[in-house]
Design a protein that fits this description.
The strands form two sheets. Strands 3-2-1-4-5-6-7 form a seven-stranded parallel β-sheet, with helices on both faces. It has a seven-stranded parallel β-sheet with strand order 10-11-9-8-12-13-14. The protein has helices at about 1-20, 25-30, 35-45, 60-75, 85-95, 110-120, 135-140, 165-170, 185-190, 205-215, 220-225, 240-250, 265-275, 305-310, 330-335, 350-355, 365-375, 380-395, 400-410, and strands at about 50-55, 80-85, 100-105, 125-130, 145-150, 175-180, 200, 230-235, 255-260, 280, 295-300, 315, 340, 360. It contains 19 helices and 14 strands. Strand 2, helix 5 (about 85-95) and strand 3 (about 100-105) form a beta-alpha-beta unit. With about 425 residues, it is an alpha/beta fold.
Length: about 425
């Protein structure tokens, strides 16, 4: 299996480079890794102890963020190194001021892992949710560096739990402790021998969305647009979402819509403008005079979405009509708003639990969306119960960050 893994880690960058002239994300992935170890060598000050947090992408960063920010506040003598695998995380957060050093993670290999550790010399390593890079993990184990998995989640169909999964299980043996989201993950790890170093901590994202909600700052132009109307905020939408949302928005002129596409490329924004017949881009809102013809704003920036849900009567979370599944449902639920999304959500435990608890509704087509929106907009018992269930679900799940910090300090992995 190690041979197959070595083939994979060699072929993956090759195919990314081949596609980079035609794919912006592939171009960022390739360009961002050029001489990255040299840049790390030049940038990292070896005089200070360092904590390394690795995130696959933006979603995992948001999970790890409350933990790293708490550590930064309580252990100011440590520098923070943040790495990303995906451009979706790095390009958005490369200027994040909560870390001292931010880089793409060099592709996994023995040489890269060894050189990386020689440069960084981390005192503590935090991997968020998943990404189990074999050589990096083994290099950490060789050096006896404490390695924690934060907000981990495991499923039975993962290779760790297969009859032929010895190679993958060897990666897991490098972790000092697993902090997992649920009972299923705990049980799966116990079945393959990890019994003493697994804790159900929950998901640190609950702490993050609560923090965002508590630090809410109003957006004046959005408040002026809303002006007492019923508002549907649709976040992280894809074409499949917008197609059915636009059918409703174009007919339901008494309701206002705020649409935040997952991708804000010129092509994608143009797509949204064609679908929503009475829409304006957010960047153009201030230059336009008030008009009764405009009932939809299309958000053409990144970083505002989590605040926009505050203005919603109903929140819609995109991605549920695609193969990857629904995006972050917690950002809407934390404000006590009904959450609606498409049919593909089974890989996301928070979406599954939110539906089960009555705080969210999954819809399968345009007619189901219309019926659900109309029912909730009546603001009767269904609306009240769904809103309350969404809010309670989020606040009942807080506290994962504190549990992980307690372990870190109790075991003296860091000194304050």
């Amino acid at each position: 299996m190690e041979v197959l893994y070595q083939i994979f880690i060699r072929l993956y960058p090759f195919f990314v480079r081949l596609s980079s002239p035609f794919n912006e994300k592939a171009k960022f992935w390739t360009e961002g890794r050029k001489k990255v170890l040299k840049r790390m060598q030049e940038g990292i000050d070896p005089a200070h102890p360092l904590i390394w947090m690795h995130c696959a992408s933006l979603g995992e960063f948001e999970q790890g963020r409350p933990l790293i920010e708490k550590i930064r506040k309580e252990c100011p003598s440590y520098k923070i190194l943040l790495t990303f695998f995906s451009p979706s995380g790095y390009e958005v957060r490369k200027n994040y001021n909560g870390a001292d050093y931010i880089f793409y993670l060099p592709m996994d290999s023995r040489n890269h892992a060894y050189t990386f550790m020689e440069i960084a010399k981390p005192s503590l390593i935090l991997f968020v949710k998943y990404e189990f890079w074999y050589y990096y993990l083994n290099e950490a184990k060789k050096r006896n560096i404490p390695l924690l998995l934060v907000s981990g989640i495991f499923r039975k169909n993962q290779p760790f739990f297969s009859k032929y999964g010895y190679f993958y299980r060897a990666s897991l043996s490098c972790f000092t402790h697993f902090f997992v989201q649920n009972e299923e993950s705990l049980s799966l790890l116990k079945d393959i021998g990890f019994r003493e170093n697994v804790t159900i901590s929950g998901d640190t994202r609950f702490d993050r969305v609560i923090e965002i909600a508590q630090q809410f700052e109003p957006i004046t132009s959005i408040e002026e647009f809303c002006n007492g109307s019923d508002i549907i905020v649709a976040g992280s939408t894809w074409y499949e979402d917008d197609k059915i949302l636009a059918e409703y928005a174009n007919r339901k002129r008494s309701v206002k819509f705020i649409i935040a596409p997952h991708n804000i490329s010129k092509q994608r924004l143009g797509e949204c403008q064609r679908l929503y017949k009475t829409a304006v881009l957010f960047s153009e809102l201030k230059t336009l005079k008030a008009s009764s013809d405009i009932n939809t704003i299309i958000i053409d920036n990144i970083g505002m979405l989590s605040r926009l849900y505050k203005y919603a009567t109903i929140t819609y979370i995109g991605g549920g009509f695609g193969t990857d599944g629904v995006h972050n449902v917690l950002e809407g639920a934390v404000y006590g708003k009904p959450v609606v999304f498409g049919p593909v959500y089974d890989k996301f435990i928070e979406a599954v639990e939110l539906v089960k608890n009555g705080g969210a509704v999954s819809i399968g087509n345009a007619s189901a969306l219309e019926a659900t929106f109309n029912q909730l907009l009546d603001k009767d018992e269904k609306f009240i119960d769904t809103s309350r269930a969404a809010l309670n679900y989020v606040y009942n799940k807080k506290g994962a960050t504190g549990k992980i910090l307690e372990y870190i300090y109790k075991n003296r992995l860091l000194t304050r």
